Amino acid sequence: MAFATIVKELQRKGVQNSKLMVSHNKETLLFDSLDEAWKFTDLLLLILKASPSLPFHHLVYLKICFSLVHQYIQHFNEVSGNKSAGIRRRSKTPGVMITQHVVDLPEGKSTPDFQCKPASVTIQEGKLAIFKAMVKGDPKPEVSWRRTKGNMLDKEKFQNKYDESTGEHILEIHKVSALEADTYKCYAVNEYGKAVCTATLSLTETLTDPSDFRKLLRRSRVGENQTNKADEETEERFWDAMMNADRKDYERICTDFGVADVHWILKQLEEKKKERAQNKCKQDGVIPYDEDARERHCLQTGGRTKDFIIKGQMQKGTGLNQLDVEKANFLDVRLNQLNAKEVNLLDTRLHQVDAEQINLLGAGLHQMDGEDVKLLLTEFKLTFIKTIYRNCQLYFTLPFSGLRTPVNGLAHREQLQWPGSFTSMCCLIFYFFLHTVSNVDFVIKIQEVQAQEREDALFECVLTHPLPRITWMGKGKVLEDGEKYSITVSDHKMIHRLLIKDCKLQDKGIYSAVAGITSCNAWLVVEVDSDLTSADKKRTRKTTLGDGAGTDLEKVAKQQQIKNREEMEKILAAIKAKHGAEQLTEEKPLTTCGRDSEIIAVTAAGKNSGALKDKSDAAKASARSEPKGSKEKAKMKNSRADGTVLKSDVSGGVTYDPKNKKRTKSGQEDFDKVTVILPNCSLLCMLDPGVQFICGLSDVNAIIGEAAEFTCKVSSEDCEGAWFRDGKKISPDDNFTVTKDGTIHKLVIITCKEEHSGKYRFEADGRKTEAMINVKDPPRFDPEDLSAYSKPVTVKVGHNAIFKLHFVGHEPVKIKWYREGEELQDDNNTKIEKSASHSRLLLSRCQRKDTGEIKIKLKNEHGFIEAISQLIVLDKPTPPLGPAEVTESSATSIEFRWRPPKDNGGSPVINYIMERQQVGRNTWKKIGEIPGVPSYRDTDVDRGRKYCYRIRAVTAEGISEATETDDMQAGTLAFPGSPSPPKVVSAYDDCINLSWDSPSNKGGSRILGYILEKRKKGSNLWTVVNALDEPIKEKKYAVKDVVAGLEYEFRVTAINVSGAGECSNPSEFVFARDPKKPPGKVTGLKLTETSYTHLVLTWTKPEDKPGIQDEAKGYFVEIRQAECIEWSRCNSIPIIMTSFSVKGLKSMDMYWVRVIATNDGGESAPEELANYVIAMPSPVRPKFTNHRMKSFIVVRAGNSVRITINFEALPRPDIMWLKDNVPVTKRVTISNSDGSSQLLIPSSERSDSGIYTILVKNLAGQETFSTEVRVTDDPKPPGPVELEENVPGTVTLVWAPSPDEKRDDRLHYTVSKLDSTKRTWATVADRLFNNKFTVCNIMHGREYHFRVYAKNDMGKSAPSESPTWGTERKKEKFVVSLPTTKDCDLRCAPTFIVPLKFHTAPKGYECYMSCAVKGDPTPRITWYRNHISINTDANYYISNTCGVCSMLIIRVGPKDMGEYTITAENALGRAECSTVLNVRE
């Protein structure tokens, strides 16, 4: 198909200005706008569908590339004004995304979050669906619900509730149908951020076998006698209606056809749509596209693989509304046919863009919701490309093969030329978007504003680069221009302002300005009106500016514009100088817009400009290294539709052949093609060196009857241009004025009319700039009527007030009247007349309370206007305010004052009428009228009598009611109290200046004067300074009667009508001498001690140098934190010592410290420490402080194990507990404090036995300590004992082991023996670790019994007894005949009556142990220490007196610790008693 046919088809579709241009075998298609280029792309899709062999893959790739790049662009559109910017992060609750609007949260405040997110619901149709959510945040968040695919306007179906008892926010959906099956979002919002989570509502299938559609039709509608053919026709009509209808009409269609299960129908509908699309693709010969499959086209180059995911661009809701499934399938096929290197080129160049910017864009996209990342392609085409053109004025060129017909190029405002492969264009668009939007910053940020109630607040900021619009946010919400907020932008788009009208307390909060990816914020502080008298009246409107209001913003903006222009000029000059010497060899310049062009690089101003030189130098060096033979012309091959190759001679470029996949370089560069590498990406950019627009036209909103002006600025003064309106050239006449002032061109419309609305264009030297003018007709007042209306209206009470004002404006006009901000409505006292040209307000029978602001507000579709007047209703004043305050009460007069009336009735108070009554009398005496000053002095009083007064206010409108005062008594003799001690203001050799305060108790009358006295130091005589008959009237005096060098003190006495009062306390002593010189700086300042809360400083007193620096009398210590700039004084009174302890520091904070010396002459220069101080003590290596720590602990199973370790370490160490060199398990509780650590096992088990080690470590070192813990229990007894005699005179005992032997490796056995000749059991073996023992010295003829015990660390078990061994020899009975006598046998075995007690003795002290024992015969006493006899040890004093056994240790030491045992033994038996001695340090 010929391209001429393409052009005709484009013109038929509305692309009227499409032209073909040929220059040097490069065919270029020019368009008037990007929309027309898009239509061309859609047309080519149809062409390629019919002729797949055409090599137009660059243009097919166009839409895919735009979609890939557009994901990043959409994010910047949001942060530059379409949506609020913020810090996005994930919540601890899964599935919740939090957006924080401010960088630093105030203390105690938090962003919203979900404690419990709503769960997805699957429910049957017709049931009640419930979503529940619980939120948190400070301030309390507001919760709202939304759905993805529909609205929630039906209040009966969607009901929001809040349960105060549980804190749950509930969404109830009544009678759920298939239309409500959707994804629902829950939003929690407060002024610091928002939180979002989602939940889905699904319906369960109710049909068991819904395969037959006819079963879904109601018999009443279809009829039982219908034929199969009728059923098929009905089914076909039903599916056609469903597939061609909108989603909102599905339920209605199902009702019309009698279908009951809508949910199942919707599933079948999706399948039928997919089936129809696949059938259509097969008929057209296109490979069908499967939505459920994820197609990846991996193109290999350079050893790397890049995946291009196509599915995401073709799913629903992505914004590609012009790209149907058919086209998507075709693109899928064409992408497979693309050359791998071409696709990889786009990938490579996108990766060369600044990594930080790419990461920023990617992070922002991943954190956005699915709705927020929709690709709004139309907005991208109309807004983004225009922004690139206006900021950069770029022209792109894409060569097409197969174009033969030469057509002259035309100049258009948005002329699009597509150079080389489309990958370069995508990179260029992406690069310049990053630098024109993301590089915007604030030269001047918004400042905090403090405003009174009812005032206006103004925020202002200045940008580094012009932006037509920024986003203003208040308390987390986007602000729009309207009645409450006025958003304005300067002509040069660099100064942005937000005006908040009529501030109220609820407007207080944080306001933000968001420009691109940067933002700034400031507080608006609204203060309550402190004037109580005007609390019910509206304040006169005035505007409050921020803290930086003194800055000339226009001047700052102009300087920034100059700076931007200078940076751009430097870059352009550097490029021209670099390539100006190179000449064109054999190629002619490429014709663009009918004239020659240069190719230069364009970069973002001021960023990475240094990369130009490096890249250019590298290119130049590479060119020099090429051999001479390579400087010949290379051939550029362009594939055509018929398979032929077009060759054009090009010097110095890169020649690319899609078929041969070769790249050849030539050393000679063209003059009109200079390849410059932009920062971070390799791009070819072309910029015409002719006239450029420095400042283009801007859209204008004009008012009918007023003037409007268009202004633009070009780069050359010699340029002449032409103005056009809607395509027609404008000639100067009575309505249009065209002027030129150097490089500035102006078009002025003197008197705007409605027909002047439209598009205006200025063309100069083939370039053009356009803008729109919108002529509006908002309501307007006649200036004379407005001036008359603005004057206050004054009426008397009961009279009528009339306000009338004429206006003009586009109808209809809404008229509203307000009084003190409240809208007025027609009633008995208010009448409002409205017409097309005027409005009248009648207020009948006005009262004093009606006084205030009267405002009229007019509004139509073009705007609104307000006019304000004042209504003053005159009335008689209210009574004067009491109570009256007595200012003087003496024996001869009473002086008092009161407050004026709260409401003077609209007229000033002229006089007051006074009456007086003596208390006790019934008559009132008229005093007369006094001037309008609220005070009176009555001199006609009797001493000691009481009086009462009546006061009335007099104005031009009448006399007020009377105010009666309390009783006032004429004074008796009352002397004043003592004044404050005199203060020394200054002192000199011949004069000392003093001041003092009047006494708080003035004695009921005014102070007539003061008496001042002085006294020398060391003297008892006070001398009066002033004469007694000449009191000092003022509260200051200069004492000149002093002797230089002497020291004085002073006191003062007050005098009133009654006489002199009490003297004040004396002042401080002061020398009569000239002022001193300030002291010098302290020396030797150093830090001697630090801790977490304080530090100690020492220094040396400064040197005394007469005439230069005097002696220091005290010192001030000042500190400041590292992040602060203000110093705070630690002591309010100077200290005398040369050391000071600074307390109250924050742990681990950094502080700067300095010391200032002071004396009477002033303060010295500060002396500061060279380095900052960290509030922490000096490091201390960990060491254990408890010397009684046990290295072995035995615990009964089931009891708790508690190990407490005390230590010293600075800074605070890291503590780790190990069991057998492995960290302890979670069932072990570790408690750490500043100086100790405790290990606790609440209920121990035998498995807890082991060696527990504590590791204490800090930066100074580490220390360890180990304790063995044995968890055990009382052992179980051994098994049966068997006896054997292997050797005569011996018995071998063999017993079964105790059941605990396997679990306790410290279990052992003890064997005891009982001889028939003795009555006590004797231990014959101990600590046996086997199950066998041989007992010796077994006597024949005796019986023996044996016991075996199991013992462990906890104790011993019950015994296992053996059978009896041996036979007792029977003796013959010896009979002695003795006289029958009855003797008393007093013999007994030894027993301890009083046992030994447990002893703990301090080291170095004596220890006395004693016990009592009885026995007959007298037992033999033996003392043991640790089972070693000490009876013969000279270190122990042992005594036995009448059975009282005692032992004395003179000086107890650590060696005396242990177990002490005393045994008592006689013929009848043996007794034993033991105790333990501990020695305390």
The helix content is 10-25%
Biggest β-sheet strands, sense, barrel: 6 strands, mixed
Averaged pLDDT, please?
75
Q: Write down the overall geometry.
A: extended
What is the CA-CA span between the terminal residues? Answer: 111 Å
Overall structural class, as computed from helix and strand content, comes to alpha+beta
* Annotation, overall tally of beta strands: 97
Low-confidence stretches: 15-34, 48-85, 206-227, 285-434, 532-539, 583-688
Radius of gyration, taken over Cα atoms and rounded to an integer in Å: 53 Å
| Strand percentage | 35-45%
DSSP summary: helix tally? 16
Mind explaining what this structure looks like?
There is one protein chain. This protein is of the alpha+beta class. It is built from 16 helices and 97 strands. Strands 3, 4, 6, 8, 11 and 12 form a six-stranded mixed beta sheet that branches. Strands 49, 50, 52, 53, 54 and 55 form a six-stranded antiparallel beta sheet that branches. Strand 96 (1458-1466) and strand 97 form a beta hairpin. Residues 15-34, 48-85, 206-227, 285-434, 532-539 and 583-688 have low confidence and may be disordered.
Task: Pick out its properties.
extended, six-stranded antiparallel sheet, alpha+beta, 1481 residues, single chain, six-stranded mixed sheet
